[in-house]
Amino acid sequence: MRFRSARPDDAETIRQMVARIWEGHDYLLESIERRIAEGGVFIAELDGRVVGVTRLRRLADDEWWLEALRIDPDQWGRGLGRELHEFTMNELRNRGRGVARWATADTNRSVPFAADSGFRKILSMPFVHWPLNRLAPLGVRKVISPDADDGLEVTDLDEPGLLEYLLRGCLENYAGLFPREWVFPAATPERLRGLLAGRPILVRRGPRGFRAAAPLYSDDAEPSELYIAPLVGSTEAVDGTFVRALGRLARREYPGVDIWSHLPIQYLPAFLSAGCRRETGFNWIYAYELRLSP
Fold first, then answer.
1. Do 151 and 247 have their domain in common?
2. Rounded to the nearest 5 degrees, what angle is found at the Cα of 107, between the Cα atoms of 180 and 47?
3. Cα–Cα distance measured from residue 170 to residue 18, given in angstroms and rounded to the nearest whole number
4. Same structural domain for residues 167 and 278?
5. Contact 247/276 with Cβ under 8 angstroms?
6. Which residue range(s) make up the domain with 28?
7. What pLDDT does residue 142 have?
8. How many angstroms separate the Cα of 171 from the Cα of each of 4, 168, 223, 289?
9. Which of 133, 139, 130 shows the shortest CA–CA distance to 255?
10. Residues 62 and 165 in one domain
11. Which of 123, 208, 127 is nearest to 172 (CA)?
């Protein structure tokens, strides 16, 4: 098998291959051209035919992210995924210092690669789908509850103290990471400002400050999926009332778009009570980390 950097003219071939995986539900279908242009995309060729793709993405000088490992379904079971992963690891060790991370669903064939290549699991979260536009248990109340006991309010990152509260939530619930789509970079004040500035954030207040907070965001100008992160607060504060208000906010700000998100396990019962469901085939998302030797 031969490995090389992907070129712009490989995009359509890659798209045709990944369209046959997960019934076509793959972020690469819409973003492969951009990812090739940004760099770090590699393909595997067998007998002159593209049979695999992956990406080694540099998030910062000392921070790397492995993503988008895909193998042609016709070639499954031949060990090509492991070969492509090992190639990526060699590229990483030749170029990298600092820390490397990646995430995958518990059902993916790449899960055993993590321990075999020295990664340790740092995070496990259920992956959920909230079909906001095909159910209506959210009620018709306004997003801002008229009941002062609810303490609910929609605000943004300019709220004093909110950035620090969200950063603390990243440490408590996400191993210090910020799970955005399928990339989990280290949570820093600069990154949260860049990603969440201008986004609606549902908060629940108490006598001593914030009791819960949930930003809604998407990485796309015309989103097809919404994410909730970082979700922060006690399980008493992130209850059914809070979650249903979050659903109403999502339907108001992003009409016609469903939520697909990683979710800290302690909040799952409240979301299930509001019509959220765990996805078959994506029940758990694992995140892994490897400290690279200098």
1. yes
2. 95
3. 32
4. yes
5. no
6. 2-96
7. 45
8. 37, 5, 27, 15
9. 133
10. no
11. 123
- b/e for 241-262, b at 16 or more Cβ within 10 A? bbbbbbbbbbbeebeebbbbbb
Res 218: pLDDT:
80
Q: What is the CATH number of the domain that holds 89?
A: 3.40.630.30
The model's pLDDT over 54-79, given as tens digits with 9 standing for 90+, comes to: 999 999 999 999 999 999 999 999 99
Q: Within a 13 Å sphere around the CA of 36, how many CA atoms are in the beta-carbon half?
A: 21
Domain count, the chain: 2
Residue ranges of E strands in the chain: 2-5, 41-46, 49-60, 63-71, 98-105, 120-130, 152-155, 201-206, 209-217, 225-228, 232-233, 258-262, 277-278, 284-292
Domain boundary among 80, 96, 112: 96
Closest CA to 179 of 108, 57, 261, 246: 261
Hey, what are 217's tokens? Answer: 């965001």
Question: Which among 100, 25, 26 has a CA at the least distance from the CA of 66?
Answer: 100
Nearest to 124 by CA among 114, 138, 132, 133: 114
pLDDT tens, 25-55?
787 887 899 999 999 999 999 999 999 999 9
pLDDT of residue 281: 62
Residue 232: what pLDDT? 96
Would you say residue 272 lies in a domain?
Answer: yes
pLDDT in tens, 202-253: 999 999 999 999 999 887 767 778 889 999 999 999 999 899 899 888 888 8
Alpha helices by DSSP H, listed for the chain, are: 11-18, 28-38, 80-95, 111-116, 162-173, 189-196, 240-253, 268-273
Residue 158 shares a structural domain with residue 55: no
